[in-house]
Prior knowledge:
Strand order of the largest sheet: 1-5-4-6-7-8
Largest sheet: 6 strands, mixed
Structural class: alpha/beta
Helix content: 25-40%
Number of domains: 1
Distance between the termini: 47 Å
Amino acid sequence: MRSVFTLMCVLSLGLMGCSDTGGxxxxxxxxxxxxxxxxRPDIENxxxxxxxxxxxxxxxxxxxxxxxxFAPNPDAEVDCFYVYHTVDRWPEAxxxxxxxxxxxxxVKALERNGAQYRGVCRMFAPLYRQMTLGTYGxxxxxxxxxxxxxxxxxxxxxxxxxxxxxxxxxxxxxxxxHSQGSGMLTKLLQDKFDDDEALRTQLVSxxxxxxxxxxxxxxxxxxxxxxxxxxxxAGETGCVMTFRAxxxxxxxxxxxxxxxxxxxxxxxxSFDGGTGTLAALIYSRSYDHVIPFPDGxxxxxxxxxxxxxxxxxxxxxxxxxxxxxxxxxxTCDVPMTPQELQESLQExxxxxxxxxxxxxxxxxxxxxxxxxxxxxxxxx
Length: 380
């Protein structure tokens, strides 16, 4: 991913000042290029539409049920704007410069997270020159002030502005991100939404999973956002869903032991502050090296219902993380316990003791359902 950023008409100017439409001002700008989008309703190779989301659910007694796959919904009432997590594992600080053709890891991230919402939203997912993994190690604090963050965020903001000019037309909007994607969308919410009452009325919700949203202890707003609260009910709109996950009983990463401020946590399985049972563990066969994929399953995805439970913990030693454990009365022997999953994630991706890279495995089913409820609530 170190090669020169090449986008036909984009030379030494990076992403600035390029358009392939030659149309009205609303059509101009770098993100008018269809090549800079993974998902957009008017492009032929829409990866949200073509993603194989066929799923088999394995019941506690071993019975296998093939689920009806979420089909793309071109008539959806709202739009989803998705920003993917870090896939550029280059160990030095910098930004991804190769976006076309779309890297396999980027498409895989989209299929794992964003494409899951295609049945409830029109999907928009831009490519961007994200920060490398090594950037995080070099700048554990002050990351937003670096040229690397500014380059990545500049792309996301440019893509969002093009989307708003060209496609939004006052429609409701769900922002969806994970990890670095959540960091980009947190900044976008601060810059575009927090002080704009009219734009906030269009916000169905923001799913900032695995990010660093901050909120004063005991409050729903303040910290990262002054006017956008944490979600307090499944049907509430104009709010933020966020958490960082760890396996229960395991030591958290150093960042979660001594965070710079109070991290926010919203439990997708329970909004009342208690423990709730997560709807399902869901993952694809492409992650068989992390979670064993069962024999005899012909679909791309497998789902184990109600095997994990979660709670937001503010216990001594760490603050407000989502602790995940086996559900009460469940052994979690198939496919693995949250503690085993955390160990496998660490062994395969080496990012410290947490469930960070498995957060959508454990919560996607709940989050999609919550978005459905929010959209329905908004329409009432």
